[in-house]
Amino acid sequence: MYIRDTIAAVSTPPGNGGIGIVRVSGSQAADIGDAVFKPLCNGGLISHRFYFGSVRDYLSGEVVDEAMAVLMRAPRSYTREDVLEIHCHGGMLVVERVLSLCLRSGARLAEPGEFTRRAFLNGRIDLVQAEAVMDIIGSQTEAALRLAQNQREGALSQRIDEARSLLLHALALVEAYIDFPEEDLGATDTAAISSDISSARTILTKLLTGFEDGRILREGISVLIIGKPNAGKSSLLNRLLNENRAIVTHIPGTTRDIIEETVNLGGLAVRLLDSAGIRHTDDVVELEGINRALEKIPLADLVLFVLDAARPFEAEDRLILNSLSGSRVILVRNKSDLPVILELPTETDATKCVAISTHTGLGVDELKETVRSTFLHEAAIDSRDFVAISRARHRDALVTADAVLDRFESGLAANLELELLSVDLRDALAAVGSVTGQATSDDVLDLIFSSFCIGK
Amino acid sequence: MINYDFQYDVIVVGAGHAGCEAALAAARMGCSTLLLTINLDAIALMSCNPAIGGLAKGHLVKEIDALGGEMAKNIDATGIQFRVLNTRKGPAVRASRAQADKQLYRLRMKRVLEHQENLHVKQGEVTALSIDGGELRGVETRSGISFLGKTVVITTGTFMRGLIHIGLNNYPGGRAGDLPSVGLSDQLGKLGFNVGRLKTGTPARLDSRTIDFSRLEAQFGDDPPVPFSFSTERISMPQVPCHIAYTNPRSHEIIRSGLDRSPLYAGIIEGIGPRYCPSIEDKVVRFPDKDRHQTFIEPEGLDTVEVYPSGMSTSLPIDVQIVFYRSMVGLERVEIMRPAYAIEYDYIDPIQLHASLETKLIRNLYHAGQINGTSGYEEAAGQGIMAGINAALRVKGLEPLVLSRSESYIGVMIDDLVTQGTKEPYRMFTSRAEYRLLLREDNADLRLREKGHAIGLVSEHDYAAYLRKKEMIAAEYARVAATRLVMDESQQQFLIKRGLSDIQKGTSLEQLLRRPDISYSDLAEFDHVSRETPQTVLEQVQIQLKYQGYIDRQLDQIERSAKLENTSMPADLDYLAVNGLTTEVREKLSRNRPDTLGQASRIPGVTPAAISVLSIAIKAHAGRSAAEESQ
User: Fold this and answer.
1) Number of other CB atoms surrounding residue B333 within 10 Å
2) Where are the alpha helices (DSSP H) in B14-161?
3) pTM of the model
């Protein structure tokens, strides 16, 4: 349910930061600004000017914080409503107090994604752009940010429009033969129709291939490092982390024993999973520890199976290898600087394999590149010109469209009646159009906007 | 002004294809009805081509028939060539078309009107509506009589401020040989209606004695001719062929040489013409690469030498016309009997109508036909019957009958008109119907007979026949589902002959009919029952089985859109005060004032986002109204 009252929320990420921004949108935004913010120079807030002043509790008169504020009058604002932003010092308590003052002055707390929803409903941005906004907020790396910005600029909308106009053109051809049998049109131009459809499908296929890349750019991948004790797992972890110390973040994992380390491998966000349990049992051969590591395999997008090149393929290696069927695996032959003893079983011939030395750093770059190229296609590596769908909803719509077009093509080849072919074509158009919001409904909108975090 | 001493329930202004259906519907529903026309000898006159039907138009005619209208019966009685188009395509886009004997068509309709109970037919030009304190009282005529009516249906065709163009000559006329209607559109404009200007045209009528038919390809109708009406048993008129001729590069040169005297290209004509029915000069200019254009030489009747060259309308001067028509092979000596001309006329923006065709500005006033910006006899008749029905329902104090987009082409057409308006003469196409597979000619009766019967338009005799057919379809459907192959000798032979050895004993006839290459006519080889069942019944079962997957998909779509279609917009909703709509959408909605959310969603520029805002505004409005009432 969507009501046009005035909403407010903290629009910077939760936690303590340099500054915290409270944003207010709606018809009462200016009044709330007057109530809670006192500019240093007297007088009201003029639209699109940044003022220095203070936030005061208007009941007690107490100064809550020194702050900057800007009022953006409709429609020149993100939501196309009157928008007030108060930039205060970033302590959690301060920001919370400023927000509660706004709420006491007549705003209500915004629902997740509500600012963007308003921007969409007011025609400020289209559906694809609205979804991309959330991706900008959540982007972990610059490449993902570029992808998100690309989408916001309407690059995806443009590709979708291209596909749409091809389909419309094909539909026009089909309809002409249906509605004008008396005209001197000649035989049905199936060649032109199928050329339109195959061009449209090429676009859809490209977008769909990009989906996986897009998802990976946005969400990153999880990588499990596994191997028998002393193979060099921890050294590998450290190698990967050392090189990227500046951008490592520490996020407590969901399992107490698992620590997630996030590292940026040339634009790809990689969460390295390492079992604390395994590290603990590094010194002692303990089957229990390996078993606990094995349980993590299904959670990982990629498994780095670390082998000791200076030792033979042993029972523990076999145990691990047997557990890897169905997973994406890269074999890492560590200690390649030492004389090689390891012989891999023939069943691993088709598996990607990189020789490294955590001791000398040999092969570590190659390993990183292999990880990256395993997940990203060429185009995605420099994603400035790369248009991808990165939402499951987009993917589903395009998969539907592609499936319907597949049926259309076989129908066309089998000389199915044109009016039946037309039904497929219209369904495909509706599916493609739903990506940019041309055939959407309240339910779809609710679904999209409930997955948004607060604010931009 | 002399007051005629009787108050009619329904007054219909104009006796063209819309007016005739409107008057008959109202009278048949028991309303005292007056039909006024400028010329009693021009009732149901085919001002342009002497034909009824065609793609989507045939569909409209069958729907009019299913509702209890006259058009199908009239063409069945006076048609001189019947053809079903698109027979090689699926059933949904097959359509009937017939050449009419123009004079017989008009005379038969006049006779039907004259014998209709509750109906007075009178000659008179309506110059104004009588409006008293904002309420419609009736109409005033040029001869000085005013008639009282509870409701009025205006069907003026091309007559309102009609202006005929032949070359750079132009003169007022409603149609060649008839006076225009002057005054009415001025009054409508003053009342707040948006008056626009459209243009259409018609080819010359040629003397068939001066055409060498031996050099033209003849095109015959179907044998036996298939009637339009669900009530017609057989066609008894003699059947005649059309002939196909072509223009050539020299014809196009002639056209180009006359363009400087074309009112279209000289900028004299301001009305917008139909893109789907361009004049020959338009075709030549817009498609310079095409070295020939086709024309069907259609007979105007059995008892006349006049013929109609379709697609060859023009507003070029008469001297160019003569040379042009004579440039075609077979037409070298042709004599023009009536020149081609273009005509401009006033129409009223149809977004000012409810879906019942009642105007939003003046209660009890209905518009139907070309006044709403449409083109074509069938489109006119489809609106005419609905306007007549709804005027009659108003007189009886009943709710209007509005057909939906999912049940009829009539519904599609009226919805298009009232939600989107039209900038060019609106013609029906099957591609306008999103549920095309369901809106077939063959099932028009299954879609609309019951509605026609419920309002009293369909006779008990016709309705009983319809119910029998419906029962037979249900019985046949059950039979093919229950009847299984026993693999007797005739069945075995049939399967071997058709290369269907994979079919097992116990397979039902239904399963067999679902195979793409098997039809009822194949089954007849061993299935005695289907041999004795009427074709119209087998046809329904077969279509249902063959297209079930697609039909189910469309039914599913209808269900999903039902919520929007069934949500009415509050009449007092102030769109300018609805937050969250763009100014453009607010203005469009205020101007259009849609009756339902479904209608609103089809107004161009109204986005899905705007619809979700509106649906909330409606709920909020309902909440407010309830709160106000309880206070």
Assistant:
1) 11
2) 17-28, 57-67, 71-78, 102-114
3) 0.75
